[in-house]
Amino acid sequence: AMALLQQMRSPRISFLQTLASLFLGGVALLSSYWCVGKQKVPKPLCTPTKHTNCIPVPGVSNSSNIQFFWETGDDRFVFPTFHTGLFITCEENVYADEWEEKCRGFYTLTPDSEKAMMWLYLSLELVYISLLLISCTLLSVQLCIRAWFPSTQRWGQLLNAFAAIFTVLGGLLGMVGHMMFMQVFQTSAILGPEDFKPHSYGYSWAFYVAWLAFTVCMSAGVSTLNNYTKRVL
Asked: Among residues 12, 227, 9, 7, which one has the least CA distance to residue 136?
């Protein structure tokens, strides 16, 4: 059991954990699948490129398709899907029969009251990734020192301590950033522009990957710090 614990605390494992959290965090940040859902949009008028799920227009549709428009309730609406990330949001295009998406910057949906918080969460997420990048660099330098210059091990330990601090700090800033994004998204869903009114939505895979990255990140930081205190004290 002690041997296993030693392995868990080894600098190599700390480095691999930090690298994994950097990779997972980067993937989540760049993805536009944090939230997915459906919108509720009135059916568009039929056009030469749109024949299904639309309101017939004399002269445009085939005459056989024209029926009197008595649809009521939800029959008058279509429910296109959308997915949103930290940077962009993409919606299914309701004006074409074949499936296609149109994307726009998430900032275009954010109400003015939330703009400051939006820039703040973006800054926090970027600082989080930068700190993890610095930690990975420090830990890789420490591994090199350990392999090639064992006599200067003390410097390696110092790098280890800084890496641990950067990893934990990065993880905490990332967590605050994720929570701010969730709040901004929920406010945008309620107060956002008329053409973005989610009928229903939930979290998607990138949201869960981001929290997995946070968990791995904190575990890496704690084991790196553990490693340092064990050797120094």
From this structure: 12
Domains in the chain with CATH codes: 1-34+111-232 (1.20.140.150)
Query: Cβ(122)–Cβ(85) under 8 Å?
Result: no
Task: Give residue 65's pLDDT band: very low, low, confident or very high (50, 70, 90).
Answer: very low
Q: What is the pLDDT of residues 43-61, one digit of tens each?
A: 888 877 777 778 777 765 5
